[in-house]
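Teaching assistant here, posting this on the class forum so everyone can see the example we discussed in section. The complex has two components, and the goal was to see what a joint structure prediction looks like when all of them are supplied at once.
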Amino acid sequence: MTRIWVTGLGVTAPNGLGTDDYWAATLAGRSGLGRITRFDPARYPAQLAGEVPGFDARRHLPGRLIPQTDHMTRLALVAADWALAEAGLAGGGPYGEYEMGVVTAASSGGFEFGQRELQNLWSKGGRHVSAYQSFAWFYAVNTGQISIRNGMRGPSGVVVADQAGGLDALAQARRQIRRGARVIVSGGVDGSLCPWGWAAQLSTGALSTGDDPATAYLPFDRRAAGYVPGEGGAVLVLEDAESAARRDAPVRYGEVAGYGATFDPPPGSGREPGLRRAIEIALADAGTAAAGIDVVFADAAGLAGPDRAEAAALAAVFGPGGVPVTVPKTMTGRLYSGGAPLDVAAALLALRDGLIPPTVNVVPDPALGLDLVTGVPRPAPLKTALVLARGHGGFNSALVVRAAG
Amino acid sequence: MIGRRVVITGIGVQAPGGDGVKEFWSLLSEGRTATRPISLFDASPFRSRVAAEVDFDAEAHGLTPREIRRMDRATRLAVVAAREAVADSGLDFAGLDPARTGVAVGSAVGCTMGLEEEYRVVSDDGRDWLVDHSYAVPHLYRHFVPSSMAAEVAWQVGAEGPVSVISTGCTSGLDSVGYARELIAEGSADVLVAGATDAPISPITVACFDAIKATTPRNDDAAHASRPFDNTRNGFVLGEGSAMFVLEELESARRRGATVYAELAGFASRCNAFHMTGLRPDGREMAEAIGAALAEARVDPGDLDYVNAHGSGTRQNDRHETAAFKRSLGEHARRVPVSSIKSMIGHSLGAIGSLEIAACALAMRHDVIPPTANLHEPDPECDLDYVPLTARERRTDTVLTVGSGFGGFQSAMVLTRPGARAAA
C-alpha cells in the first residue's frame, strides 16, 4: 500500500502564528486565550476565545484577495503558503498540475463575511450584497482559493463533520494519493468569531462562560464547565512517500499511518458511543497494537459527560493510565475544523522532538484514570501518536501518525 | 485503484415538479418544466425572480413537529429522499450491522435557509451587528455546521459507520456519491446512504447570484426560463431538491437478489485553479476529469450511450462544457446524445449532481434519454446533439454525468449496467 508522508506544515494558531512560534509557545505552556477583541462581547454570556495574534493579511497576500475573502480564508491561504514553502513545493516542484490537489475541512464557512452581507441585504437591500458573497462564505471556499493560488488542478474536496472533519479531510487526502495523486494540501483552518457566529456557538450551551482564561477551559478536570472556541488551524502537505523520497523532500515529519471514523448510536439509545471503535479501526489500519501508541492527543470537549466518555474509550483500549494523554488545545481553544489538523501538526512536532507538549491549567480528575501530561513537556521516545476528534451530533474520528523511519 | 465494485440499489428523490422518483421521471421523460415565479418568499425586489421549487409537505411525509423544527428545509428533503431510497432498495436496514453502514450527504450551501431566517430574528432584520442570541432557536448550531444533515440521515437509517457531509459547491452531489463509492470500494463500509440536498431559494442566495448576474432575469416566461445550450439563454434558474441512494457492493447486492440500477464504474474530480466563478473556455480540466473517470471505468468514449451535461444555461458554462466534451470524447462527442435536465428542474446547486445521477440511473432503467427542454435555437458554438424538447428511446447501458461549479471544481462519473458488456 502506498505510504504517505507529511512534508510540510503551516500553522496559524491563537498562541502562535507560524509553526515555530506555535510550537515554542505550546512547549512553554503559553496560552492564546483571552477576551474577544474582534467584536464587543460584553452582552454575551461567553466572552473568551482564542484569536490568532498579529495577523496582517496584507503583509502576506495580494491586495486583490482581501475584499473577496473571509478572515479564516486569509489564514488558510497563508498557512498553505507556508506549508508548501517548507515542503519545497512553493512553485509546484516536479509534479504535474493534475498530480496536486487540495482537500480541506470546513465547519461553518466564512461566517463573518456572511454576516456582513446578510446585514447589507436586510438593512439596505439586495443591491448592496457583495459580488463575492456567492463564494466567500460557502464551505468550499478554502479548497477553491488554495487551489487557485497554487495552480493545483488535481482531485480536490471539502469534508464537513464538525470538529471531526479535520481528520476526515486528512484521510480523504490520503485516499486521493492512494488513487494516484502525488501531493494533497490538506487540513483545516476555521473561525467564526463574529456576533452571528457567536450566537450560533452559544446555542449549544457548551461554551464556557468563565471570564478567566486560565480556568475557562479545563477538560478532564472536575471543574470542567465548557470549552473556549478559537480560530486558526493547520495546513499539511501530504505526499506520496516514494515521490517525496525521489525528489529528496527537505522535511519528513512523519507518516499518516491509520484512520478510523464512526458515528454514535442515536441519542438516548444508552449504547456506548463510537469513539472506542474509531480508535480500534485506526489502530488496525495502522497495523499497530494499542501498546504501539506512545501518546494520545485527546478531543477534550471540556464538559463532564463527553470527557468521561472519552476517558472511558481510552481506558477500554489502552487500560487505565495506559498511555500518556495531552491536550495542547487548552492553549488555543477548540478550533472547529482547524482543531484536529493543528493537533496532528503538534503530534508530528512531538515525534520530531521527543517531547509531549503539556496540557495547561488542568488538574486531572483522578476518577478518569488518565495519564494526563500537565504543566511542562514530558520527554519521551516517541514513534507513534494517536489524534482524536469528535463533532457535534456524534462524529468520531481517529488518526495515527508515525515518525518517518 | 478501486477495490470492490459499487452499485445503486435504491433511489429516493424530492425534486421540483413532483413527489418521489416516479413523478420525477414522468416530468423528465415528458420534457415538462417545473420552473415558475418564486413563491417561497417575496422576490419582487430582485433581478431574478424565477425558480424551480419543490411542493414539499414535510408533515405529510411523516416528519414530526420536533424534526421539522430542528431541521432546515434541505435536511427535511434529504431525510424524506433517504427514506424512499431505503424502501426502494428492499434492503432490511434493521438487520444491517450499523458499524458497516455509512452516510454521505452533499450540499453546497447547507442550512442556508434556516440560517437566514434565524439571522433576521437575532439581528432584527439587520439592525444589530451585535445580534441578540437570546432570540435564537436552541438548535441553531445544527444550521451553523451542516454536518447535522448527515447526522439526521444517519439517525433515520441507523448508520454508525463513516458519516460525513461533502461540500464542494455545485459538484457536491457528484462528489458525495464518489466519496461514498470509495468508502465501500476500500472496505470501510458495506452500505452507504449517499446523495445530496440543497434548499437555497431564499433572499440571500437570490441576491448573491443577482450580484454576479448568474441567474436568469427572464421573469416574464418562468416556465421557459431555463434554456441550456439555446442561443437565447441568459443565466441559470435556481432550484432545490434532494436525491439519495442506497449504495452497496455488487456481489452482495446480487446475492440478495436486489434490483441493480447501475454500477458506479468510474469517478474523478479536478480543479480548474483558474477563478472562483469563472471558467476557461477550453474546458480542459473538465475534459481531464472525464478522461480519468472513463479510464477508471475502462470505458471507451465510443461506448457512451448518453451524456448528462451540467448544462446550467449560462453562456460561459455551455461553451466550456461543449469544448470539454469535444476534447475528451473526440468524434463521439458529435454522435452521443447530450442533455441537461436543468432545463426542467433548474439548478439546485449541490443537490443537482445527485439528481442527475438519479436521472441517469432511470434513463438506464427505462432506456429513455431525457431531453433538453426549451432548446429551440442552439447557440452556434454549442453544436452537439442536445436532445432538444422530446425524450428519445435508446438502449442506454453506459452513461457519463458531469458537474462544474464555483471554486473551480469539475467532476465526472461513469455509470454502467452490470453485465451489459464484457467485464473489464
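For the discussion questions: The first strand of chain A starts at residue 4 and ends at 13. Chain A has a mean pLDDT of 97. Think about how each of these relates to the inputs above.
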